[in-house]
Amino acid sequence: MRVYKLTKAQIQPINDISKATLKISLLDIKNIEKYPFLLIVQSTIENSIKLSIYPLKKEKIIKVTFSGFDFSNKIFEKISKILQNFQIIHTAGALIIKKQLFYECYLNLSLDEIKVMDLKASLGEIKNIFKEIKIEEIGLKKSKEN
Known about the structure:
CATH superfamily of the domain at 61-138: ACT domain
Strand order of the largest sheet: 4-5-3-6
CATH topology of the domain at 61-138: Alpha-Beta Plaits
Helix content: 10-25%
Strand content: 35-45%
Distance between the termini: 52 Å
Structural class: alpha+beta
Largest sheet: 4 strands, antiparallel
Order of helices and strands: EEEHEEHE
Radius of gyration: 18 Å
């Protein structure tokens, strides 16, 4: 019977509390040389941080956040019906924060693309269900050199 490694772990020292430099091997990502960018999604909950890393061919993508709605299968069916027309890279799933329900996902789409107009039109049809639907572009982070 083959033993599979589901996760990898390492312990690194913290030298600067404001930012840590993580040493993560990307060799296990298939065809990594075809992707010039990485999307790094950070989820922080109390005393832990979860990182999800996705190879990308684009420098910009969009994040869609739905907030302030009641949980129901019907609402998630509407969201799913819209989002199935777009390539979802990552979803944080549904979270309750201060008695409000949130759902967020990252799409392999930039604000420059024509297809974003289809997304905005579809979201416009269901906007009255939510307190807010926010679309924001996530782009290449400019590093500050000292």
